[in-house]
Amino acid sequence: MPEDTSQLGLVLTGGGARSAYQVGVLRGIAELLPRGARCPFPIITGTSAGAVSAIALATDAAHFRRAVVAIERVWRDFRVHQVFRADAVSMLRSGLHWALALATGGWLVHPPHSMFDNSPLWDLLRRHLNFDGIPRGLYKGHLQAIGICATSYAAADSVTFYASSPDIDPWQRAFRKGARTQLTLDHLMASLAIPFLFRPILLQGQYYGDGAMRQTSPLSPAIHLGAGRLLIIGVESVVHKPAAGTAPSLEPTFGQMFGFMLDSLFMDQIYVDLERVKRYNAYGDVRPIESLIVSPSQDLTDIARRHRHELPRSLRALLRTVGANNAAGTQLLSYLLFERGFTRELITLGMRDARARADELRAFMAVNAMTPRTKRRPAAANRDA
């Protein structure tokens, strides 16, 4: 096991409300470290909801446990109205807006920018995140790089906006690139802007949306930022359900199809990229990239089904209208269920899974052999990832 912990990277995938599971895993990791330890991941990347935790860790990189507890405190008391307006008046206003826009062909009323108004999330993150902590962590050496991913609607590129030590250069590959910048709340909200659900964000003359949309290589940003070992915390269950058997096939509802789209958006490319890393490691003349993925040991859609009653009545009515209130549509429900009963159960599951794999995590992270971090330019072979 290598002793150079400066090459340890953390990859946090997207997943909406499911990302509460990542908070639980981070809490379990914090238990493996001595109290007062700094962040064990000098390189952090996040996409969509995973970008929120990534930024929170980076803004307080000198105190890992404190940062994790702060994230957990928010997720344990989450309510939908802290993310988007879901009261009856707001939902009715949104529905009427869509109806008038469709009825008039957009002439009388312009089409809405999104299905939901996520201004409450802007306010929540503005209160809890101090972006000034990122340059401070970089200057003091507690952090080597932090990157969050968004998608450019104009260029159709996956863009990793990152802050790092000076020796990490921007990169350009097919449909993906890295852009050094001073990270702000606007960059984070761009990464969170799930298409149709939330409004795109204007950055430097271009509109950006959720980072998972064009992210064909989700592990690449962390590798470009210098990581040689990747700890990936996903939100897709490792539990595989049995085939449906001979039950009659029903036409999927809109809610079911949209949930399937979100599932594909956030999950599929991680495992494809892990296979790509394995093929890369097969070459004998390159420095191998090690990886470890932590995923839920239970099906999160089953957990979401038990907590659907916690959603505001107006949102339950909307989900019922689009066909996302039955068993087949629970995937969509699991991404929108920002309610504390659901998020607390996912946090508990994440902690339990991390504790069950404590020895594996210690060995991979070299917890007992961490040395002072030194700035190092990533190997040329890995920078082609």
The biggest sheet, with number of strands, parallel, antiparallel or mixed sense and barrel status, is: 10 strands, mixed
Strand runs, count: 10
Q: Provide the succession of SSEs.
A: EHEHHHHHEEEEHEEHEHEHHHHH
Class of secondary structure makeup: alpha/beta
Strand content: 5-15%
Distance linking N and C termini: 22 Å
What is the residue-averaged pLDDT? 84
Taking pLDDT < 50 over at least 5 consecutive residues as the criterion, the unreliable ranges are 371-381
Shape: globular
Query: Whole-number radius of gyration?
Result: 21 Å
The helix content is 40-55%
Total helical elements: 14
Q: Helices and strands in order, then pairings?
A:
Blueprint: E1 8-12, H1 20-32, E2 43-47, H2 49-59, H3 64-76, H4 88-103, H5 119-128, H6 133-140, E3 145-152, E4 158-164, E5 171-173, E6 176-180, H7 185-191, E7 201-203, E8 206-210, H8 220-224, E9 229-233, H9 254-281, E10 290-294, H10 300-306, H11 313-321, H12 330-336, H13 340-356, H14 358-365
Parallel strand pairs: 1-2, 1-9, 2-3, 4-6, 9-10
Antiparallel strand pairs: 3-4, 3-8, 5-6, 7-8
